[in-house]
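Researcher: Please translate sequence to structure tokens.
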Amino acid sequence: MAGSVTRAVPRPTVRSLVLATAGLVAVLVLTSLLWNIVVTLDKIRQAPHEGLQWNAYLLDREYHELLIATLTWEPGDPAATADIVRRAHSLGDTVIFLQDRLEQSPALGAALTSTESILRFTAMVNNLLQPGEPVDGGKITRLRTMLRETEPTVDEFSFATLDESNLITARWRADLERTMALSALVAGALLAALATALVVLARQRARLRQDKEQLRISALSLTETQRIARLGTFWWDYVVDRVRWSDELAAIYGIAIDGAMTGSEFGALLHPADRERVEGAERAAAAQSASTGQPVAREVTYRVRRPDGSIAHVQATAEVVADASGQRISMTSTVRDITVEAQQRSTLVASERGLAEAQRIAHLGSFSVNLPTGQADWSDEMYRITGLPSDPFGKPGPRLEEVVHPDDLGRLQADMQRALALPLPGGSAQVPLQHRLIWRDGSVRYVKGMAEYVFDAAGVPLTLTGTLQDVTDDVEQEQALQAAKQEAEKANAAKSEFLAVMSHELRTPMNGVLGMLSALLETPLDADQQKLVTIARASADSLLLLLNDILDLSKIEAGKLELETTTFELLPLVRSVVHLYAQPARLKNISLESQIAADVPAWLAGDAGRVRQILLNFASNAVKFTTRGGITISVSALAPPMDGQVRLRFEIADTGIGIPIEKQGEVFAKFNQLDRSYARRFGGTGLGLAISRQLAEIMGGAIGFSSEAERGSKFWIELPLAIAEPEAVADGRRETEIAPMKILVAEDNTTNQLVARRLLEKLGHTVDVVSDGVEAVEAVMSHSYDAILMDLSMPKMDGIAATMRIRQIGGPSGAVPIIALTANAMDEDRQACLDAGMTGFVTKPIVLAKLVTALAACAAGLPDERADVEAEIVQPAAADDFEVSLAHLESEVGREIMPELLAAYDADVRRALARLGEASRAEDRLELGRAAHSLRSVAMTLGANELSQLAQATEASGGSEQPIAFSDVSRKLSEIAEPVLDRVSQAISKYT
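Model: Translation complete:
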């Protein structure tokens, strides 16, 4: 057993030297006695056993020193091997010397017989260690085995020689004493001889004590050597079934020192899992020994279960001796404790296994290259990542061009060269890795990682280490997501483009529908018809608003919405929002006010149209959802202006129904009305706030709100705007300042309503709008105004009649300044207005400078006959000047209102054409003239001069007695109007 070995306990022997003593020569006569004493002393001097004790001691010491040399021998140590050979031959010489001395003395025959096994050992050593032949581990092992086998004989020989020498010395001492007793005459001589013998004996005993001490020191040295090397020894004598061991083996196995066990007891210390393997190795060695007749070595590593339950790992080298029948005779084993090494190796293996598993899971491989030797070390995952078969011999990895994608190779090589271009003595340089690999099957893999060059003190690169991760799945997933995103963007763009196109295409017929419905409302209708047409008109208005929202949303999503930076005055912009919803607020009996902080700049630069659009959305919702209390629009600066910029906060607070907390997260969602009941009660598409949020973000601002159910809401937008210089003569007020006034506009034409309102609001005035003379009279009787702009040609009651009726009211209301608005600029028309009680006269299309002059006269309180309010009579041009008129109108009213204004223009033209068609079919001269006047008024606004001239001629013919070709007039006006409407539609597309 690799550890179940016992050595046969050797019989104790003593090494000694024989002391030659003087023999007693008994002679009766002095001469004979003296002769016998002389002869005895001579025998002692020439005795063959003289010096035998010393040589026996040398034999014992040289033998054990050789044994220790073989036990501590390490392969690959030439000096140790040479020392063993030298000691072996020296031991052989000592044996031969002793053999010669012993053969000279028949009395030492017993000791000579004991040297037979030693002589055989000497012969075997000489045969084993032939001069000139190499000495390997096998010969050393066999030498060690022979030493172990001969050790008992050596010990026995040493003690036998010492005993035999002592016996001889004792016999000779007795002979000498008898001789001295027989002859008193020669007592002195005998005493002298005895003294000499005692001296010799003392000397020999001192040498014996010295040799024993040396043996003790050698034994201690061997024990200490084994302890330091954690190297123990045991001997197993199979014949007597006994196992004995060295002190160090006792420490390794955790058993008693100087103890002994049976083979089965010793074998029980083996770990059960290793027992069969160890015993199998011993059986194999015994079988080989039986066949060769020589000791057979076996080496095995196994575990030992100590009596305290702990486990020791050992590595054993043993020699098994068996007889011819295969029965084991003995085994000598040297055992080395490798428990710490085994634990470290186990920890290392576990660590390497964990690292390999982690690399496999993360698809992360590692590599290391010894640059001077080219030796490469790759992890298992590195081979899997590159698709290459693993190389257990650590040969250099493949060249870059064999695995790196050709399109990435140049970049990678350049990165590596840059890292080597500036060597860092004693430092390192990193190389990012991000490229593709081509596997042997042609597939492409994506990898990324990091490599690092390490330089020695001279700046020479020593190693290249790094990691590489397979990111193919991530890259492919990202590519798939990118492709899906692009497809989604294409689909979204296509959808947005489709919505934009459809919005444009639908707006033209919708404007026609609105125009026809408005025209229909101008005709005599009974109550039911009036209600139905009114509902249809409201539905058409809602649909047009929806189309406008969808168009804005489509442009935003398609990324085609462009902001236009213009200079604008803040006060008119805010007031225009207030005025637009003033009438709906009055109908609901709620207040609508505006506030602008004193530190807010009056003139700004930005997209005023989009700012107004957002405020209109806020105001519309506030009016819609408020049934009591009021609404306040406020503007404040969040911080003092800096670098020509200011960040303003526009806020609209209401006392309406508020928003439940659980619904507040949906406020800015598209097509969201928070609840179906909201849509049923209040209408709307749910796009306004969503568009407002996106507009705010595009303009670099922020939008938000706070609300409490049944307590009201507060919506706000914060925008960065540039501070602008006031326009030089943008509205004429720089020359004639006019205090804000409350003005009533009486105008049946939607286009002119919008133009008048916009111009007045830009001047800082508050505006109410009515559509006919009757409503104008009612408004004057209900409210107080500072001035009235009165159109002359209106349904139900024209401007002349309405002015006369207002003057009859009396008091401050009846004395309000009234400025005529008319397309007729003849002197008789002007006089008719003055006769009716009007204060001023402004021709259409309205010119801002002339309007300012007229209002300034009213504000100055000039009497009618002194009011210099005549407008310059502008003769229409011979050809259309649409683009010039469009640009002029935009500069007057602002770009942001142009889409609404153009839509109203389109509706007014279509409504007027419809009225003309009805009048022509009915051959109604009076209605034909009124419809032509309305058409002329609208046409002049955008420079449709040809249409305006024909409308003016038709208006004149309607008031004369000349025959009229009604069908031709209507057809001719429609033909001329058609290209005008096309240009209006194109202009709407431009602004939206």
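Researcher: Any highlights?
Model: The longest strand covers residues 311-322.
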